[in-house]
Amino acid sequence: MGIIISGTILIIAVFSKKIILKKNAIVSKNAFSIRELAFDEIKGFAVNHFVLYIETNSKDKKRIKVNLLSLNRGDKLLQYLEKRFVNLDFLKTEEII
C-alpha cells in the first residue's frame, strides 16, 4: 500500500511542475521543492528525449530538469531559451566535427 501511495505522489509531482520566468531568473516549482536560477548562473540548455536540462555554470547549484511532455507551452519555453542562452546540444555537434 505504501508503494502505491508513494508512486502516486511521485507521478503527481512530475505533472504538477511549473516553470516561471522572472525578469532575471528561471524558477522551477513542484510538489516538493522550489529551485531558482538567476540568468547569470545559467550556462545553457540541452534537450534529450523530451527532457529539457537547464545547466548551471556553478557547482553549488543543480541544473533544472523539465519533462517537456508534461509541460504546457513547452515550445514557447524552448524558443525563449534559444533567444537568451546557448544550446549545448549544438556545441556538442560542433566539437565532433
Strands, count? 6
Structural class: alpha+beta
Radius of gyration, rounded? 15 Å
CATH class: Mainly Beta
**Amino- and carboxy-terminal Cα gap:** 52 Å
Write the layout of secondary structure elements.
Blueprint: H1 2-15, E1 18-21, E2 25-29, E3 34-38, E4 42-48, E5 51-56, E6 64-67, H2 74-84, H3 88-96
Antiparallel strand pairs: 1-2, 2-3, 4-5, 5-6
Q: What does this protein look like?
A:
With 97 residues, the chain is α+β, with helices and mostly antiparallel strands. The chain has a single domain, classed as PH-domain like. Helices cover 35% and strands 32% of the residues. It has three helices and six strands. The chain has helices at 2-15, 74-84, 88-96; strands at 18-21, 25-29, 34-38, 42-48, 51-56, 64-67. It has a three-stranded antiparallel sheet, with no helix packed on it. A three-stranded antiparallel sheet has the order 4-5-6, with no helix packed on it. A hairpin with a 4-residue loop joins strand 2 and strand 3. The model is unreliable at 93-97 (pLDDT under 50).
